[in-house]
Specification:
By secondary structure, the chain is α/β, with parallel strands linked by helices. 44% of the residues lie in helices and 23% in strands.
């Protein structure tokens, strides 16, 4: 998979930009607040129709602009593809090869990316919400139908929570709650099954990559932790059994949910657990181990997507190389070198191990302008 050109109009601080990429490694250099991350973000938005930095699309539209346009031409194993995404107050319009897509889920997955930014180090040591977002974004790229299930789940969850907040348990309608429960569980079970399978695949690659980085001295494991039950139980359950267990948990926690005004069971409370040699990395791992674990996860994503779609995604490295020591940076560069088209942002080349890079294209970014 290769991005051949990128065009922006009215996006963030880019009034107009046309960028031709030459494959391989593309490095964007410049001081902070000049627009380097905006370029990386635009590619990410074209992939997932969502920003990794904000949930508000209006923030992606430039000052005094009514809309923002992202357009790209790319090469996939099955041929050339043109993509277009228009953002405005009326919503999003997405086109593939000039044909407007009725659903954004039909657009997602055409361009695949793996993003690695400093905040991704929080996947290991941060809050559970960071890890859930990590799962959602990556699963959504290889299984676009997952995004639909997730959106349905979130919509129902919000409605159910509103009902719990506004109604006393003694006056609640059992029939109404049964409707919310059934809808919530139907979407939730689909999410849980896809999350479990994704983490099993990711674990396979992350364990192998981590062993390579650490010289075989560390065994790295990634485990899916659903909000109820366990993955071992899920292995022995069909969808109807998991559905029944989820419904039972909702019934058991009903009184507590009304007191707190929120849903206490479901994928919105899932988590991941990381361990090195059997010890929890989040609680007991050194900073170096946490960083190596995060790096292993990102490199595992590349291999997992290659396995799923038959070609490597784009790799977006947003000011992350300066966060890695020489050993980890070298491991990262050697992994993507000559295999994965990579886009790197940095404030200066002194933070990049240039001796390991071959034929990198370098662009200087100044106030929304690119210079070679």
């Amino acid at each position: 998979m290769q991005l051949n050109s990128l065009e922006l109009q009215g996006y963030r601080n880019y009034d107009s930009l046309k960028l031709s990429t030459e494959g391989g490694v593309n490095i964007f250099i410049g001081p902070n607040a000049q627009g380097k991350t905006n370029l990386i973000e635009a590619i990410h938005v074209l992939s997932l129709t969502k920003s990794h930095r904000t949930s508000k699309d209006k923030e992606l539209i430039g000052w005094n602009q009514s809309s923002a346009l992202i357009r790209a031409h790319m090469q996939r194993k099955y041929g050339d593809v043109s993509l277009e995404l228009l953002l405005s107050a009326q919503g999003k319009k997405a086109k593939i090869n000039g044909l407007e897509q009725r659903k954004l889920s039909s657009f997602v997955g055409t361009l695949n990316v793996v993003l690695f930014a400093p905040e991704d180090l929080d996947i290991v040591k941060g809050a559970p919400g960071v890890r859930r977002r990590f799962m959602d974004m990556e699963i959504g790229q290889v299984h676009p139908g997952y995004l639909y299930d997730m959106q349905q789940y979130q919509r129902i969850l919000q409605q159910r929570n509103n009902y719990l907040k506004s109604t006393d348990s003694s006056r609640a309608s059992p029939e109404m709650l049964d409707v919310w429960n059934e809808q919530l569980v139907t979407s939730g079970v689909k999410m849980m099954k896809k999350r479990k399978n994704f983490i099993l695949q990711l674990q396979k690659w992350a364990e192998k990559i981590h062993a390579g980085i650490t010289g075989g001295n560390e065994l790295f494991t990634v485990s899916y932790r659903p909000s109820f039950g366990s993955t071992a139980e899920m292995d022995n359950q069909d969808d109807s059994s998991l559905f029944g267990q989820f419904m039972l948990k909702l019934s058991q926690s009903k009184e507590q949910e009304f007191r707190r005004g929120m849903t206490l069971t479901g994928p919105h409370r899932d988590d991941l657990e990381f361990a090195i040699n059997g010890k929890d990395v989040q609680s007991f791992g050194s900073q170096g181990q946490q960083r190596t674990a995060a790096l292993s996860l990102k490199l595992a994503e590349l291999e997992l997507m290659h396995e799923e779609i038959g070609e490597y995604p784009l790799l977006l490295l947003d000011d992350v190389l300066s966060e890695l020591d020489q050993t980890r940076q070298t491991q990262l560069i050697e992994t993507f070198q000559s295999r994965v088209q990579t886009f790197i942002t940095t404030t200066g080349l002194e933070s990049v191990n240039m001796s390991r890079l071959k034929d990198a294209s370098i662009f200087h970014v100044r106030n929304g302008q690119l210079l070679r």
